[in-house]
Known about the structure:
This protein is an alpha+beta fold. It is about 30% helix and about 20% strand. It contains 3 helices and 3 strands. Strands 1-3-2 form a 3-stranded antiparallel β-sheet, covered by helices on one side. The two termini are about 20 Å apart. The model has no long low-confidence stretch (mean pLDDT about 90).
Amino acid sequence: MLVQAYKVLKPEGRLVVISYHSLEDRLVKRFLKNGMFEGEPERDIYGNYKKAFELVKSKAIIPDDKEIEENSRARSAKMRTGIKV
């Protein structure tokens, strides 16, 4: 789903993903940083990594105590947002 979402997003389009499991979140985090799930990302001629997305926040957004109290299932949710470069 993430690869397909990247293909259909226009430049500066936003991708928001909520994950409920740490292994899922790890994949989302890697994809938003590098545009791939594993391996070494491409570099430009200066040696800098090519970014697939610009992260809106460097850390995941997690629910606060009030939200967890209202909905206990939200306690493991993490939301990550990226803007396509």
